[in-house]
Amino acid sequence: MSDARTANLLGALVVTLHDEMESATTDAAEHGAAYPAALATMLGEPGLSIEALRQILGLSHSGTVRLLDALEQEGTVERRSGKDARSVALQLTAQGKRQARAVLQARQGALEPALNALTGPERAQLLRLTEKLLGALTRNRQHSDHICRLCDLSVCPDASCPVNCAAQGADA
Fold it and tell me: Model pTM?
């Protein structure tokens, strides 16, 4: 098998999984674009600042503020006092936490058919290969946060996250 064919098939797999995840998470969030990732990120990292969320999502400041305005209007996010008088800490409301959990469950559900096609040993091999690829593709801390913007952080603690570990090594 050639490297070109492997790359082509990997690209097709990535696109297919992305499409499945995007469809499932936008349905669960009841919005498209950055909504699902914003909810998942704030669930995993309560108290983020607007700037930190902006960087993670890869949005402009004004785009992030518009997103937060919409989330706040629908009752999923609250802006609270931050670490100093000039900052704001973002918190999900109870409704926002429910919706964020629904997004993560939908994401998991979209990925399960691909995993179900594999045997136990194949899944273990895929885990090792995925960890290796993610570690190799992580450039720094900011990039790692962007990579994990739709991750369920409860199932991948920082100490064992290949993206986090690679970011620590890159920033050292």
Answer: 0.91
